[in-house]
Structures are given as structure tokens and as C-alpha cells.
Amino acid sequence: MQTQAELLSHPLPKILFTSGTSNPNNPNPHRLHNKFLSPWEGFKNNVTTTLNNADLSDSQLTTTADPPDGELIMVGNKHSLIGRFQENVGVVLGKAFNASKDEKLKYLRFGDSQVVRGPGGEADVLIIACPPGLRPDGITCRVVSVFRMYWTQPYIKDARISEALDPVDPQSRLLLECLEGPIGQLARHMVYRQLRYGFMSTYEYTIFVKRTGHTRFEITDPIKFDSTKPSIRECFYYMGTLGAGDDYSFPDPKPAETFAILKSGNLNADNKPSTSFRNPHKPGWEAPEDDGIDDKYVESEELQETTPPSIKDTTPRSIIFGKNMMSQHLFQIQEDMFEYSGEHKRVFVGSLNGIECIAKCFPADLVESYVHERNTYRLLPPSRYFPKMLAFGDIVISREFQDGHIIIFTKEKGIRLSFPILKNMPQEEKTIIRRELIYAVKVLRSIDVKHSDPTPGNVLWNKDSGKLVMLDLECTFEEDRNRPADEWEVNMVMGTKLNQKGF
């Protein structure tokens, strides 16, 4: 039996992990430009003050968290990681809240986004206010979050905003670039759910976020799982008191306009997104006039002279697609390759006109992601560093994928990299990979973009041929073509510190 104070003071147990998925998290087009990030001043002092003013000594509580032998469950994917977080944080905080004499805190609970659905996509973990009797009409989300797997994105720990605002060194802002994706996704949840508070966590490190203005988000430095004074649980107790307060909401009458500003990083005099910076030749949401087979990327004469698919050629695993919902091409699925959790996108291995290739399918509500990736590949100059786009269009008939859009790519040889693979590589091989990455990034810079999710899992490496291929251009951001190619994507893939070059 322990008091609330004792339970909250313990550091989190270390996760049992040896290996797991090397795929990065879902590609995220919801970026928050780092110019809108500011330090959350006094966060730890506020945690301490809140704990000192709270009565946390009366109740004697039991919990299955913190076993003497440490963690007993091994994890290898995001779902398991969130499960361990809910056991080691959500359950403990739920007991502490439940024992509180403060009626507002008493009914706070941790949960998932299916409990309180909201616009802006599915969040990972919520702090929820649950009235007595669990009346559905009275349950409200108070704090929202996004999760990342720490073994696929270890650089999060280096994104310390306290060290990223050096006025003498403009390069210090590079530390925050790895947060633009995950904090951008979190900011979208906060904006659309009209919330003031949120957090982004990898379990090993957690960043707490407070929205203090229309385009201002204050963040803490990453706080480690085994921190004390304050501990992670104590930090979440403080976040609970904020979520239980009367000002947990941040009303925003035009969330779509707000997020357009946050993504672009540009404001005009009316506090609206500026369009003057946009290059009409950059990847955007406007669909080009032509559609279907793109001759620029075709490598086979067979694809250049396709005929409409015949019913006799179809099977239960066929995908028929074309322009304006007209049946023009048939992709035959051979095997499932990957499904993006929560977003209903799927990747298949199959054939188009007898040629083995890869199909990436997007549901209808992700048309922006589809158009962005398609247009980015249309702009890429020919190179060995990216798959070639063979075809694209509207899905007309498919049992596997009911509606939406499809892009067909060449099937490239190689293994998906991961941080464990890179760690165990000979230095000479890593040097070659780094060199090839720089060449690949130079191709992106030639069309003024940067990769938004440059993780090892988005890179194929063929040791025998020495060929490297970057994947997943579903989300790219505008970038100055003169920016050095080894500053962002290369360090993110190789796992080197963002303010350094080389190994």
C-alpha cells in the first residue's frame, strides 16, 4: 500500500525491448512550422507547486505497476508501447485522481480516441473527464496526445527547445525540425478538438504542450521516463489539474484556416495564410489535367499501350482503376505488404500488365495525401534514388479497397533500414549509405522540397548493388534548394544529432 504521493513519485519502469517494427510511424502531412514553438517556462516549478499544494497523503493505494522485477511484458510495436504507457501511467494516475478530494480531479481518466471521437483524425491517448455513471453525453476530452515509437525516432530526445533559440546561432533551430511532424499532428488534434493542452510521447521521452495563442504553442524539453523531481507521473498529475480546470478549452471558430497558417509558417496582415510564397509548380492539391499512365515514368512498352481491362482477366484480388472513374487499368494483387494503422491506407505487391510492382492505395478522405504524393513524383527528375511512378488514378472496382485512389510504383530491391541495422553495420558501409543519402536529398532540393518523415524505415538499401532508394513522398515540405543536403534528412535517417554533421 502506498500513498498517492509515493505512487506518483516513482520513475517509470524501463520498457523491455530487443527488436520490433522498423517501419516509421504513419506519414504525417500535418506539419507545425517550428517558428510557432516557444518554451513552456516554469513547467517543472509549476508541477512542484501543484504537488505541494495537493493533499496526496491520506489514501493508501495498491497498483500492479512498478513490480520489483521491472517490466514483464516485451514490446515491439506502437500498440504494445501505448499499452505499457497506459499500465504505468494511465492506471496509476487513474487511482490517484479517483482518490482525490477534488471533485474535478476525481473523475479524470486516461483513454483512447474512440471514447471521445473528434475531428482532426484519431489521437492516441486522451485524458478524459468522466462524470458519475459514465453518461456518454457528459464525457469530454481534456488533454490529447500523439505517440511515437522511441526506437524508430530516437532523435526526439535531442529536440530541446531550451537549446534551440540561440539568437547568435540560427542553426540551433535545426534541433526542432524533427518535432514539426509529431507536434504538427498533435497541434491539429488540439486545434480541431478546441483544446489548450496536449503531449507527445515516445514513452522514453515526453514533451508537454500548451496552446497560448492563435499560433503559439509552448513546449517543454523532452522529459525522460526515469526522471525524478518531478517524475513523469507527477508531470501528468499537473497536466490533469490543468485539464480539469475551467480553461482547458481553446475555442477556435476556423480550425482549418488556423492549421493552414501553422503548416505554412506564413502570415499576412490579416493573420491568414500567405499564398505569395507558394510556387505554382510545387506539389499542391490541384489535380493536373492528365491522369492514368504517366509516360514520363514508364519503363516498359507494355505499359504505354494498355487496353481497358476485360472482365475475364479479373479476380477477387483485382483493382481496376482509371481516370474520372472510368475503367482503364488492372492491378492484380499478389500479397499484402503493409497497412497504415488508423488511416486505412494499404500497400500491395502485385502486377500491372505482367510487370511486378507496388500499389499504394488511399481512401477517398485522404485525397490530399494521394494528390501530394502523385504530384511530387511527377516533379522529380529521373534518378536512381526514388521508385518510379508507373500509373495512378481513381479506384473503380476492388473488393480489397472499396474506393479511393491508387499509385503504382516500380518494385525496388533492398532491405528497409532501421536503427539497429545501422548500428551494427561496418563504418565503411554506413559511410557509403550517408553519401548516397546526400545524393538522394540533392534530388529533392532540386525541386525545392524536403522529406517530412526521413526515418530509416523509409529507405531501402541494396548492399550488393550499392543502390539506395528513398520511399514515401506522401508528405514533403517546401525547402530552400540551397539548404545543404546533409543537414536534415541525412542526420534523421542515420540517427546522428540534428545540430551535427557526420557520425
UniProtKB/TrEMBL annotation:
InterPro entries: Kinase-like_dom_sf (IPR011009)
Record region (Disordered): 270-292
Protein name: Protein kinase domain-containing protein
Species for this entry: Arthrobotrys conoides
